[in-house]
């Protein structure tokens, strides 16, 4: 079943962020995997999040690299980490490195990783190694 329309997802993000913010007095980062990260990126500046973490960011729809959804990423002010597989079908390294992304965005590449950060067996890396590397980089980023 398809996800809810973007306006509904964004409104849900606003509600959840407001509720969490009432209980968190310190720094608060937001983020998500794939579409969850994209929705968070659309609201990070508006919400005043301290940081944004996206895993497997959908820079374009499957099979549509000629229609990137990156315009808002050029002006993003929130400190951002995107963990991306080099061969992600929704944003491979060659395509993403050609985009004009905000200087506040860091992309952490996982060798031969797909949209779920799973590497090709021939790469010599395991999925567990990639997940551990991603978790380590996210933890460092949030310090």
UniProtKB/TrEMBL annotation:
Keyword Transit peptide: no
Domain spans labelled KANL3/Tex30 alpha/beta hydrolase-like: 1-142
Pfam families from the UniProt entry: Abhydrolase_11
Record keywords: Hydrolase
MF annotations from Gene Ontology: hydrolase activity
Top-rank taxon: Bacteria
Name of protein: Alpha/beta hydrolase
